[in-house]
């Protein structure tokens, strides 16, 4: 089974996404904050990480930076999930090393399509 790590501080969103992805056949790890997400990424090495940008204590940008600085996680496909929808936010996410960005609110089917694409292709950073 393919493992996806969700890092999201909103309990309702985390629960909804976890349930949806599990029903689609994925093994889902979930973390309510960046620190826990980094621990899970290092321990389980998921194929894809979907991470909220705006979180207390450690935002998604810091999570990505720390994962990219770690050999065991620097090749993992990484997508930001955010309510920030400006083009400059999208460009900044890609410049930081994210493979993609999905803007909240999003359709679950859109997330599934993006997830499957990155699971098949892997991180764009490796191309």
How would you sum up this structure, described in words?
- With 127 residues, the chain is an alpha/beta fold.
- The protein contains five helices and five strands, in the order βαβαβαβαβα.
- A five-stranded parallel beta sheet has the order 2-1-3-4-5, sandwiched between helices.
- α2 (34-44) runs parallel beside α3.
- The chain is globular and about 30 Å long.
- The two termini are 24 Å apart.
Summarize the structure.
45% of the residues lie in helices and 20% in strands. The chain is an alpha/beta fold and 127 residues long.
What is this structure's SSE topology?
Elements (H helix, E strand, L loop, with lengths): L2 E5 L3 H13 L3 E5 L2 H11 L3 E5 L7 H9 L8 E6 L4 H10 L3 E4 L4 H14 L6
Helix pairs in contact: 2-3
Which structural traits does this protein have?
single chain, alpha/beta, Rossmann fold, 127 residues, five-stranded parallel β-sheet
CATH class category label: Alpha Beta
- The low-confidence runs, each spanning 5 or more residues with pLDDT under 50, are none
**What is the spatial order of strands in the main beta sheet?**
2-1-3-4-5
- Under the CATH scheme, the architecture is 3-Layer(aba) Sandwich
Q: Between the first and last Cα atoms, what is the distance in angstroms?
A: 24 Å
């Amino acid at each position: 089974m393919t493992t996806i790590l969700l890092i999201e501080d909103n309990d309702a969103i985390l629960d909804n996404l976890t349930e949806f992805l599990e029903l689609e056949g994925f093994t889902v790890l979930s973390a309510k904050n960046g620190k826990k997400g980094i621990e899970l990424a290092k321990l389980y090495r998921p194929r894809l990480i979907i991470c909220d940008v705006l979180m207390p204590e450690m935002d998604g940008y810091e999570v990505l930076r720390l994962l990219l600085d770690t050999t065991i996680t620097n090749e993992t496909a990484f997508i930001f999930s955010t309510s920030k929808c400006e083009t400059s936010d999208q460009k900044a996410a890609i410049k930081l090393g994210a493979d993609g960005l999905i803007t909240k609110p999003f359709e679950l089917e859109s997330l599934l399509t993006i997830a499957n694409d990155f699971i098949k292709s892997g991180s764009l950073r490796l191309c």
